[in-house]
Amino acid sequence: MIQRIQSVYLLIAGLVSAGLSNILPTGHDIIGSFNKPFLYEGMILSGVLSFLIIFIFKNRKLQFVLGRINILLNLILLGVFVYLSLNLPGEALVSEKGIGQFIPVITIVLLVLANKAIKKDEQLVKSVDRLR
Q: pTM for the whole thing?
């Protein structure tokens, strides 16, 4: 359902992950992003997974598990970005690391908020079931 708050969080996470990864520079474009295509594929996979989680609203447990998998994927992407930025030479063609490296951080925050809302919904449903 689109009117739930976790759907809004997941929609924004998907747009940030899949959309902004193509727009914002990551700093690795300078040294050749074609050598590291898994970075962009991982971000697009994270965005697609976020959009997929929205439409599994009837199975909240699966939503929660897929949200955790998406958080893990973004943590791996963040680790790869940190590793590559530490190994990036300081004086390349352009000496900037790129703001696009913070995309996984933003996505992780949004996914944690979505998982918190999913868990809250699950607890609400369980409490209503106990009353029946």
A: 0.82
